[in-house]
Specification:
globular; mainly alpha; 0% strand; 12 helices
Amino acid sequence: MPSSRPRLIPYAALLGAIVALCVGTSFAKSLFPLVGAQGTTAYRVGFAALILLLVWRPWRHTASRADLGRIAAYGAVMGLMNLFFYMAIRTVPLGLAIAIEFMGPLAVAVASSRKLIHFVWIGLAVLGLGLLLPIDPGAQPLDPVGVGFACAAAVMWALYIILGKRTGHLHAGRSVALGMTTAALIVAPIGIASAGASLFHPKTMLLGLIVAVLSSAIPYSLEMIALRGIPKRSFGVMLSIEPAVGALAGLVILGEHLVASQWLAIGAIIAASAGAILTTSADAVAEEVTP
């Protein structure tokens, strides 16, 4: 009887990618008192760009002007998505911010089909967002500015999926390397302007490198392994557990306690995301890869 272990490796790799991303983001939040959310974003995107450039060396291959324009737009959205998300988790618990951000991929998946069942998923997502309101006596009101940044990150994630598909004919690794470089060129000046000289302190830079490795390099590498052995639809469904993993990481690492209604909100949004992917035609399912 053949061993099932090789079949489980891609799923283990994707789970590892999700855990690394959430742990890395939790660790990144601990850098906010030192360099702020903008400076931490600059670390994550900047170091990730350097790593990807060294790995893929995209300068060895030529690209048309039109393709470079597509990659630049894709990279700009990637940078803003990271910046808005880090701005959101300054005041919003990690799991809740991820759940709100997931509205972007959910909207893309639902928009690709007109089935009646999709209105169920929309309703479930709206219910989840409603449960994030401070209706539970033990819940603290969510900061509206933080929620606004999380919603902006959701819009950027939706655009990231759409624009990323326009680069689908290009080499994935080289496209991501150039896209992340574009993101760094946008985000790094913002981080420098915000954090100033503290951004170049050697110890803090080392911590920033760790953030980039945990939040970008490791997840990206593991997702590449996962995508080779997991159908796209299953990949998207499994990725939808990320808000729950983020909430657990926030609880264990950052001490972010959620009340029952907020856990229910995360569950509703996960169910809506998974349901939308499962009931969308295979050729219309957006490939949601966390950058």
